[in-house]
Write a structure and sequence with these properties.
heterodimer; A: alpha/beta; TIM Barrel; three-stranded mixed β-sheet; 11 helices; B: TIM Barrel; seven-stranded parallel β-sheet; globular
């Protein structure tokens, strides 16, 4: 089975950028209008899972600043990009979690085949701070419990596919896979939704064997940094494979036929239970016009693979 | 330079609001806009002189922004649209769709005006090849290295040569992206060295702090053909007075530069450009004295803000520069006692 979806935050249009900068009165209606447009683009591209474009999220973690014990901290670079996020400081219990993500999504606009993106606990704890949870493991597991409540609420609202974006697992040279596994078990145990652990901002070639052992439905890769040749060396039997073949970090549009050929090759070598064709990471690194072209091309590639 | 701890700016200041309202007004003629830009440049030059800086520029008051300004004048670039820096802050990002080439000296008129209007030393900031490449979408070149070297040889080098022909004696290559990809430091080194090949001027490299405390930059420093690095330190330092390791934690990396054999000058960032809190002259003094000791030679220490002050209001920026100049004087007095 071959499906398609996009990862993460979408770019704002020029009109919306201006409105957010000026905090215009009609900002909420503009967000809504543009969210509808992007959802329509995803449908036009015939993506199998549709997401909220997260236009009103300043970064993938920001909604969690609504928690009582969380404070906004300094700006920090997103890995090696020229984009920054606001660090959060988790300074108390996280009992009030459970509806943060869901209430920050336009759930009513989404079709039944919906997906949502959330950072994996290891990444989340890696890029934020805590004065309460002093040890990394303790902090990661507390974050995992918080995220589980969030994900349960999403699943109850019909989200069938949960993307767990894991750039820190890709970027960090040394990763404590014990902590990663324990935290993912909290997230996925008994969960009635598919989970894809998606890696970008680093090459995970040497980590794939360990990652295949993680308690998630499947693994996702940024193929600009993790070479396809290294993915093809592994069997994905019993797992799903998400191939981030559409590059959100370059305006150059992918050649449809080249991608289809490459994907067919990967599938025949890795034999996954299910295949997802996707972007390598958030489309917000492109201006809107280019992002739209990439979404449409993603749909064409997925259909090309299905018909091959 | 005969005195210890010369003071300098990094480059950008917030533009005066009256200038923005003039240049954005479609009903105002080109000539009047040009006059307004000259007035603003003159205002910044005189302000920086009055504050007592030894090395000045014009606050980059004519430039749109450090990336967009040069890209407008380089053949091979096409603007794609705005992308997020953070929150609601965006920058206009360009695609590289063909061979890169130099069209004209895009900082020439700006430099000539400053030269005519000051007797102080002038440091000309130019955006470096590595940063221009890193902040763009490359649709043309086969590799990042190829693109960076094309920019260094075909744009930066002729630009710097033209500025030197006009009388520029100090060129600052601004490379905020320099240390953002530790694995690409070899490309960065080549980029600077190719940019300044055959140039007869003092070369300064400004690189922002990025995650690993300049640890990836340190081994490259002796091999890069720059006489000075202007770097960020204050934003990781404590606000406590003192000249010991405990208080001056933001400056420990200076010892690493020395360990790697770097023998040139360092323009130490003594003011944090991300906060409005004004450093006291005594704090600036202690940061300078610690740095002089860490480098083992006070003659190698220049004094500047961490980065351009354009993110602060003009009032805050000028207060910070004033404290910086006073702090440098206190450090000189301590050295002389």
């Amino acid at each position: 089975m071959i499906s398609s979806y996009t990862v993460g935050i979408y770019p704002r249009s020029e009109e919306l950028i201006e409105a957010t900068r000026k905090n215009s009165k009609n900002l909420s209606s503009l967000y809504l209008k543009e969210k509808k447009e992007y959802i329509a683009v995803q449908k036009r591209a015939k993506l199998d899972y549709v997401c909220d474009p997260l236009l009103d999220w300043d970064d993938i973690y920001r909604p969690f600043s609504k928690l009582k014990s969380v404070k906004l901290s300094a700006l920090n670079r997103i890995y090696e990009t020229n984009t920054f996020y606001r660090r959060l400081s988790f300074d108390g219990p996280l009992d009030d979690a459970g509806n943060i993500v869901k209430s920050s999504l336009a759930v009513s606009l989404l079709p039944k085949n919906r997906t949502a993106c959330i950072a994996d606990p290891y990444t989340f704890a890696d890029v934020h701070l805590s004065t309460k949870y002093k040890k990394r493991e303790e902090f990661t597991l507390a974050i995992a419990k918080m995220l589980r409540k969030e994900i349960d609420a999403l699943v109850k609202s019909g989200f069938e596919l949960i993307q767990l974006v894991a750039p820190s697992i890709a970027y960090n040279e040394k990763v404590d896979f014990g902590i990663v596994k324990n935290s993912l078990e909290i997230i996925t145990r008994g969960l009635k939704a598919k989970t894809i652990l998606h890696f970008y901002f680093g090459d995970v070639s040497k980590k794939i064997e360990k990652l295949l052992d993680m308690p998630v439905s499947g693994l996702g890769f940024d193929t600009t940094l993790t070479p396809i040749s290294s993915i093809k060396k592994h069997s994905f039997s019993g797992k799903s494979l998400a191939v981030g073949i559409v590059n959100s970090y370059n305006t150059k549009l992918e050649d449809k036929q080249e991608c289809v050929t490459e994907l067919n090759n990967i599938i025949s070598k890795t034999k996954p239970d299910e295949v997802f064709v996707t972007t390598n990471f958030d489309l917000q690194y492109l201006p809107k016009d280019f992002a739209v072209r990439k979404i449409l091309r993603l749909g064409e590639i997925a259909r090309g693979v299905r018909s091959a | 330079m005969h005195k210890y701890f010369p003071t300098q700016e990094i480059g950008s200041l917030k533009k005066p609001s009256w200038l923005l309202s003039v240049v954005k007004n479609p009903d105002i003629s080109k000539e009047d806009k040009s006059r307004a830009r000259n007035d603003a440049a003159l205002l910044n030059i005189k302000m920086l002189e009055d504050l007592g800086l030894d090395v000045i520029y014009d606050g980059e008051v004519r430039r749109v922004e450090m990336y967009e300004e040069p890209v407008r004048y380089i053949k091979g670039f096409e603007f794609a649209g705005r992308v997020r820096s953070w929150d609601n802050k965006y920058y206009n990002k360009a695609r590289i769709t063909g061979e890169i080439s130099y069209k004209q000296n895009f900082h020439g008129e700006e430099f000539k005006f400053i030269k005519e209007n000051t007797k102080h030393d002038i440091k000309v900031p130019v955006t470096g090849a590595y940063t221009l490449a890193d902040w763009s979408y490359d649709e043309h070149y086969k590799s990042k290295e190829e693109l960076v070297l094309a920019l260094a040889k075909n744009v930066l080098r002729p630009l710097i040569k033209d500025l030197v022909k006009l009388g520029a004696k100090i060129i600052q290559i601004d490379e905020p992206a320099a240390t953002s990809h530790p694995s690409e430091m070899d490309i960065f080194r080549q980029s600077v060295n190719e940019s300044v090949k055959g140039i007869n001027a003092k070369v300064v490299v400004h690189a922002c702090f990025s995650g690993n405390d300049y640890e990836s930059l340190a081994p490259q420093m002796p091999e890069i053909k720059a006489q000075q690095y202007t770097l960020e330190f204050a934003n990781r330092d404590s606000w406590d007075l003192g000249v010991n390791d405990k208080e001056r934690k933001g400056y420990h990396v200076l010892k690493l530069f020395k360990e790697y054999g770097y023998k040139g000058e360092i323009g130490i960032g003594v003011t944090d450009v991300h906060v409005d809190r004004i450093e006291t002259p005594k704090l600036v003094r202690d940061r300078i004295l610690y740095s002089a000791k860490a480098l083992g030679d006070p003659a190698k220490v220049y004094v500047n803000p961490d980065c351009g002050l354009r993110t602060r209001s003009r009032t805050v920026a000028f207060e910070k520069i004033k404290a910086m100049v006073e702090g440098a004087e206190l450090a000189r007095q301590t050295m002389n006692n």
